[in-house]
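Fold in tokens:
===
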Amino acid sequence: VKTVMSSASGVTVEMRSNLIEPNRVSPEPRASNQGQQYSKIIKEYERAVIFRLGRIVSGRAKGPGLFLIVPCVDQIRIVDLRTLMFDVPPQAILTRDSVTVSVDAVVYYKVVNPILSVTAVSDVDSSTKYLAQTTLRNVLGSRTLSEILSERDAMSQSISSILDEATDPWGVKVERVEVKDVRLPQQLQRSMAAEAEANRDAKAKVIAADGEMKASRSLKEAADIMSESPAALQLRYLQTLTTISAEKNSTVIFPLPIEILSHFNAGRTKVG
């Protein structure tokens, strides 16, 4: 709207109004990103699952490197393909022989199918952790305390196989499970220590008795040999005298022929 005003001095002032005429329609602004695509870069160990209007694009994950997405239409979920690990917190487990133990473990796993890890389960990490806890309790609860203490490798393999099979529909590969610590009640620890000490004492006594038996057997064999050979007995007698005389003591030894001693013993036998 244009307005012209004249002043008394003859100066004409022109004024314009910003009002829009009633019958004119302002054109709508055009979207600057209409048909435009944005670029996205992900790392070598990552994959991108793209949902376009709720459907997965191309039926496979994108990456690594550069790819294009449509803004306001595409939604992206980034999946890490590296091997991940988590600690299974200590679990109170009742063994098959009714002993309560506390066991913890560590699990190594990785995503091998990014699409399944996004579409088959709501939270693949939390689901794998909770499944590991229940599997650990079930496997160890079916074994005795002695088996848990002596067969850790076999138990780890069993837990790993069960977890791997259960998480396969989620696109997850369980690579390794390690049982870390097995904690026993204090009273049970004292009982096991006492039992181990008793076993050690029994083994020591058996070894000592076996040694005495072997020594007695050797002495008997030596006595039999000497009784059959007077010369050997005489040599042993002289060796004993030499050993005694070498010691620093005040013992006085009167060496006598063995024959005299044998006659003396024979006389005592007849008198008896």
